[in-house]
């Protein structure tokens, strides 16, 4: 794991974590954004959970389907998720 930036902050009185604004902006952490916490080699790791929008924005050149194909895929994924 490469450390690109380091930031220091304090834990709040109720155990809240308050990442500095520069870090939140760099990771796209906005109010309501879901994040994943996990422990790796004794360290707390915080990762933003990818949204459908962020995945689409990062892969625009790979996405070339019609609206009909999109709706068919969406329906199939929805049905699979319910089983």
Short description:
This protein is α+β, with helices and mostly antiparallel strands. Helices cover 35% and strands 14% of the residues.
What does this structure look like?
- The protein is α+β, with helices and mostly antiparallel strands.
- The protein has one domain (21-81).
- 35% of the residues lie in helices and 14% in strands.
- It has three helices and two strands.
- It has helices at residues 21-27, 52-58, 67-81, and strands at residues 35-40, 43-48.
- The protein is elongated.
- The chain starts with 20 loop residues before the first helix and ends with a helix.
Topology:
Elements: H1 21-27, E1 35-40, E2 43-48, H2 52-58, H3 67-81
Count of separate DSSP helical elements: 3
The helix/strand class is alpha+beta
Report the helical percentage. 25-40%
Strand order of the largest sheet: 1-2
Largest sheet: 2 strands, antiparallel
User: What is the 3D form?
Assistant: elongated
Key attributes of the depicted protein:
elongated; two-stranded antiparallel ribbon; 83 residues; alpha+beta; 2 strands
């Amino acid at each position: 794991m490469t450390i690109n930036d380091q930031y220091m902050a304090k834990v709040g009185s109720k155990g809240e974590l308050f990442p500095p604004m520069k870090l939140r902006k760099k990771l796209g952490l906005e109010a309501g954004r879901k994040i994943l916490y996990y422990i790796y080699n004794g360290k707390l790791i915080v990762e933003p959970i990818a949204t459908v929008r962020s995945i689409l924005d990062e892969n625009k050149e790979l996405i070339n389907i019609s609206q009909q194909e999109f709706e068919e895929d969406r329906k199939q994924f929805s049905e699979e998720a319910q089983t």
